[in-house]
């Protein structure tokens, strides 16, 4: 957990520093991966270390292992809300805030509250608790992210109605993936640890199909990787003088385009590499400011740009007399991990006198793989 103030007893009032609470989200690919169990497990550990922990809201879904894991943690009683003559319960946000724990465990971030509640969504209740200076641990499944709603529907055939804004993950202080293999999840389902036995076969034939689980798992892992990388970028921008190297989490491919016809071959090869790695594709052409392109060369560069865009790539054009330096600067700016370049078209004497572009790049680049593609020599 985040460093807490000195631990008070539950009945002792104390002055809390005026700060927003910190938010840790446990995210998984689907129900049953163990998000709630992991949250409760950490709650117990922190309680043993002296942190004042309460359960603000827990949904066990009749899972015995989850219910058993909650034993020993204080639970803030729920609030009764009557809707259409039926009395239901929701988290008592005001009671959680009045209790003033150091940490509140709040399950199912994407839950929609009963009509008549003060706030429509549980994540809004969580934000209220955070504003009161209380740290929160919460849980959510990847399919509840707003931006992934259409994609999840295409993958699973299920339109998820309860959604949370993506900003919650971006604003969270920590996001933890609770990950299991699809095989383990299927085994838990068959053992009755996720749903009642009568729902198992239907679940396996629908949402819990193996291909769905594989895709959802990849989405969850990728989302958190994106989140981590964005955090690293922000940290770098906030410490511009830092000499610490930036660590790329995702692969990014840069194809070096020239006026030689082999550039089209390089773009196709770069697109294949990007496809294998599921990586963004960029193409770079460096203009020599001291040299005008012929009409034929200009048309060739335009052809390269069109081809790159057909592969959903981004075409970059810069002007610099020093091509190696320009490539290295763009590679750093775009956090490139793979560079695709053709073998030198210069004569052996020119290479001996001035060195090849590839040799210059290898001296300038660190932690970037360079693919030198053999192509037909231009005569």
TrEMBL record:
Pfam families: KdpD (PF02702), Usp (PF00582). Keywords: Kinase, Transferase, Two-component regulatory system. Residues 251-365 form the UspA domain. GO terms for cellular component: cytoplasm; plasma membrane. CDD domains: USP_KdpD-like (cd01987). One of its GO terms (molecular function) is phosphorelay sensor kinase activity. Residues 19-228 form the Signal transduction histidine kinase osmosensitive K+ channel sensor N-terminal domain. It comes from the Bacteria. SUPFAM superfamilies: Adenine nucleotide alpha hydrolases-like. PANTHER family: SENSOR PROTEIN KDPD. This is Histidine kinase. It comes from Neosynechococcus sphagnicola sy1.
């Amino acid at each position: 957990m985040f460093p807490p103030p000195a631990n008070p007893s539950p009945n002792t009032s104390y002055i809390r520093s005026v700060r927003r609470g910190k938010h840790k989200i446990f995210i998984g690919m689907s129900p049953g991966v163990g998000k709630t169990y992991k949250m409760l497990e950490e709650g117990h550990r922190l309680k043993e270390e002296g942190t004042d922990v309460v359960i603000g809201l827990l949904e066990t879904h009749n899972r015995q292992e989850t219910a058993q894991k909650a034993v020993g943690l204080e639970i803030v009683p729920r609030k009764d809300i009557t809707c259409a003559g039926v009395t239901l319960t929701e988290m008592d946000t005001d009671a959680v805030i009045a209790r003033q724990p150091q940490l509140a465990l709040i399950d199912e971030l994407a839950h929609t509250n009963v009509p008549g509640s003060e706030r429509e969504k549980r994540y809004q209740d969580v934000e209220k608790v955070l504003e009161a200076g209380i740290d929160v641990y919460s849980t959510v499944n990847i399919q509840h992210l707003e931006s992934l709603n259409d994609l999840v529907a295409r993958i699973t055939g299920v339109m998820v109605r309860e959604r949370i804004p993506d900003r919650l993950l971006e604003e969270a202080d920590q996001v933890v993936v609770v990950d299991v293999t699809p095989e383990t999840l299927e085994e838990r389902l068959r053992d009755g640890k996720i749903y009642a036995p009568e729902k198992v076969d239907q679940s396996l034939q629908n949402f819990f199909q193996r291909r769905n689980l594989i895709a959802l798992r990849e989405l969850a892992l990728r989302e958190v990787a994106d989140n981590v990388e964005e955090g690293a970028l922000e940290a770098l921008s906030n410490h511009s003088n830092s000499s610490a190297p930036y660590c790329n989490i995702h692969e990014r491919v840069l194809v070096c385009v020239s006026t030689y016809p082999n550039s089209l071959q390089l773009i196709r090869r770069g697109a294949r590499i990007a496809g294998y790695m599921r990586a963004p594709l960029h193409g770079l052409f460096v203009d020599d400011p001291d040299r005008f392109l012929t009409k034929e060369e200009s048309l060739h560069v335009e052809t390269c740009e069109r081809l790159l865009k057909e592969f959903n790539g981004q075409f970059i054009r810069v002007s610099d007399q020093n091509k190696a330096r320009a490539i290295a600067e763009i590679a750093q700016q775009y956090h490139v991990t793979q560079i695709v370049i053709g073998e030198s078209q210069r004569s052996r004497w020119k290479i001996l006198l001035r060195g090849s572009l590839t040799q210059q790049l290898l001296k300038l680049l660190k932690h970037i793989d360079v693919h030198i593609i053999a192509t037909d020599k231009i005569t």
